[in-house]
Specification:
The protein has 237 residues and is mainly alpha-helical. The protein is built from 10 helices and 3 strands; from the N terminus they run αβααββααααααα. The chain has a 3-stranded antiparallel sheet.
Length: 237
């Protein structure tokens, strides 16, 4: 029962963080979170650990937990690594991908188009992750796959771009269409190049969001949280 409660609190807080209902820098006071979700401290503590693993929450001694803030430098460095890893993986996938995996990706493409039409950012975000996960899983290099997935896990806050920048959905989907065409043609060079350009395009959107959030600041939201001291660096999802 505790595990189910922890998971429920984790899912609820994660969605509120990704939708910016709880802003970057906001303190998450354990007792207030527990009261909100009618829980004891134990499942709340576990939920916060799960959020910390996702890179959405950070904890410090005597300061407790707060929603993670990111600097423009962190966005640049993370996407530098992600873009090259996923470019390599997508190129390898183009050479090795099976008809069954292509069919799975085609189905995801249909669902992503529907999410774009509905302007459903959360749904598109989930499908986008599954789309790229399927491609990377088909690359045939286990170490490359694990490194890429680890970076995704630790920086899942970047998914906020699909909730806060509506035009990003259609842009990403157009880029996905090009990648899919290259995969169907088993064109490794084109698939690798388009995957690199796609990640750099996402980086630019996230960086722009960093600037916007940093310029207007962030107000604490919900759970009786008090704002953490303002970081001098710009903040981002």
């Amino acid at each position: 029962m505790a595990d189910l409660k922890s998971r429920a609190i984790y899912v609820a807080l994660r969605e509120r963080i990704l939708s910016n209902d709880i802003a970057p820098g906001t303190r998450l006071v354990m007792r207030d979170v527990a009261n909100r979700y009618d829980a004891s401290d134990i499942p709340v503590r576990e939920a916060l650990r799960m959020l910390e693993r996702d890179g959405l929450v950070e904890t410090a001694p005597y300061r407790g937990a707060r929603v993670t803030t990111l600097t423009a430098k962190e966005v640049e460095e993370t996407y530098f690594i992600r873009s090259h890893l996923e470019s390599i993986a997508t190129g390898l996938a183009a050479e090795r991908i099976t008809d069954a995996e292509l069919a799975q990706l085609d189905l995801l493409m249909i669902e992503m188009r529907a999410a774009v039409d509905a302007q459903d950012g959360p749904r598109f975000s989930d499908l986008n992750l599954e789309f790229h996960r399927t491609i990377v899983a088909s690359c045939g290099n286990d170490m490359l796959r694990e490194l890429t997935m680890d970076i995704w896990q630790r920086h899942s806050g970047f998914q906020r771009v699909f909730r806060m920048v509506p035009e990003r959905l259609a842009i990403s989907q157009r880029e996905h269409e090009g990648i899919m065409a290259a995969l169907h043609d088993h064109d490794a060079d084109r698939a690798s190049r388009l995957a690199l350009l796609h990640k750099l395009s996402v980086r630019d959107s996230v960086s722009k969001l960093v600037d916007q959030v940093g310029e207007r600041g962030s107000d604490p939201a919900g759970d009786g949280a008090r704002p953490a001291a303002r970081d001098h660096a710009r903040t981002a999802p």
